Amino acid sequence: MDTIWFDPRAGDELVQTVKYYESQAEGLGDRFAKAVKNSLKSMEQNPAIHSKVNAGCRKCRVVRFPYNLIFREHEKGLQIVAVVHMKRRPDYWEKRV
Questions:
Q1: Which of 5, 14, 19, 53 has CA atoms 20 to 30 A from the CA of 33?
Q2: Could you report the per-residue pLDDT of 60-90, keeping only the tens digit for each?
Q3: What is the pLDDT averaged over residues 34-48?
Q4: Domain extent at residue 80
Q5: What CATH number should be reported for the domain holding residue 13?
Q6: 58 in any annotated domain
Q7: Are 19 and 92 within 8 A, CB to CB?
Q8: Sign of the C-alpha dihedral, residues 60, 11, 75, 89?
Q9: Is residue 36 predicted with pLDDT exceeding 90?
């Protein structure tokens, strides 16, 4: 894979979630960010191992947190479409694709 990029709305979701976790406990936001980074590595190494969620999109679980990264493959790399809490409106992002 050449690159991974975030849809601007997904980038905002990531920033807001890191801030939220940091407000709950010092260092928790950093742990969430590291878990997301590990998920991105997994997606980059083998995107096809992650479950399909709709036409053209897959999800990658963020370990130890109730979040999925929704992504789709492009010729240039992977686009992160959404950073989704698994229990809150899990399908809201579908209008983005």
A1: 53
A2: 999 999 999 999 999 889 999 999 998 887 6
A3: 95
A4: 3-87
A5: 3.30.2310.20
A6: yes
A7: no
A8: positive
A9: yes
Please report the pLDDT score of residue 95 as a whole number. Answer: 76
Token digits of residue 4: 């991974």
Q: What is the CA radius of gyration of the chain?
A: 13
Cα–Cα–Cα angle for 14, 65, 60, rounded to 5 degrees: 70
Per the structure, the count of domains in the chain is: 1
Give a yes or no: residue 93 inside a domain.
no
DSSP for 35-88?
Answer: HHHHHHHHHHH-GGGSEEEETTEEEEEETTTTEEEEEEE-SSEEEEEEEEESSS
* Nearest residue to 58 (alpha-carbon basis) of 24, 87, 84: 84
pLDDT number for residue 32? 98
